[in-house]
From TrEMBL:
CDD domains: S1_EF-P_repeat_2. Residues 131-186 form the Elongation factor P C-terminal domain. GO terms for biological process: peptide biosynthetic process. Belongs to the elongation factor P family. InterPro entries: Elong-fact-P_C, NA-bd_OB-fold, Rib_uL2_dom2, Transl_elong_fac_P/YeiP, Transl_elong_KOW-like, Transl_elong_p-like_YeiP, Transl_elong_P/YeiP_cen, Transl_elong_P/YeiP_CS. Keywords: Elongation factor, Protein biosynthesis. PROSITE patterns: EFP. Gene3D superfamilies: 2.30.30.30, Nucleic acid-binding proteins. It comes from Lysobacter arseniciresistens ZS79. This is Elongation factor P-like protein. The keyword DNA damage does not apply.
Length: 188
């Protein structure tokens, strides 16, 4: 596949490593005979390590077949996470290092996940945009302290900490953005 055919989301192989393309910058030099250059921002699959690559428009990249299967979190097996395919209940086991920071957003029966598969091997996990998680520990609201909204730290049932508004109490379920790790509202 030529560099000018690559689109965001494509999965390509470069130097024996598989990458997913997240961003593309195109630059056209002024003047005659200038070649168009493409700068790709890519992340390794699995692993998620960032890699920047600049290529000419006619340079070749090998496209890799990646399938995405919708799955539901089933259980934790040691350090590994097991997801079941929503259609045929195939179990996909993903190691903790593949899940990475996403582990803090995985709750029982989490739906809306996508397991990314290359050559029948699960290689990456795509979480839903927001996840509902229970607050297990947060300081009480200060009555009449101030009229401004101040965030306070809250520890969630999965072990991660986020900042929440003052009115959130222990035992409440909150929506957490899985991309930014920020509070997105009440869940219930």
């Amino acid at each position: 596949m030529k560099a000018y055919d690559v689109k965001k989301g494509n999965v390509v192989e470069y130097n024996n490593t598989v990458y997913q393309v997240r961003d593309i910058e195109r630059s056209s030099p002024q003047g005659r005979g200038g070649n168009v250059k493409f700068r790709f921002t890519m992340y390794s699959v699995p692993g998620g390590n960032k890699f920047d690559l600049s290529l000419g428009g006619d340079d070749e990249l090998k496209e890799v077949e990646l399938s995405r299967r919708q799955a539901t979190f089933s259980y934790k097996d040691g350090d590994a996470f097991v997801f079941l395919d929503d259609e045929d209940y195939t179990p996909y086991t993903l190691d903790a290092d593949v899940v990475g920071d996403g582990a803090g957003y995985i709750v029982d029966d989490l739906t809306g996940c996508y397991v990314q598969i290359i050559d029948d091997q699960p290689v990456a996990l795509q979480l839903p945009q927001t996840v509902a998680i229970e607050v297990v520990e947060t300081p009480p609201e200060l009555k009449g302290g101030t009229a401004t909204k101040r965030p306070k730290p809250a520890k969630l049932s999965t072990g991660i900490e986020i900042m929440v508004p003052e009115y959130i109490a222990n035992g409440e379920r909150v929506l957490v953005n899985t991309t930014s790790g920020e509070f997105s509202g009440r869940a219930d």
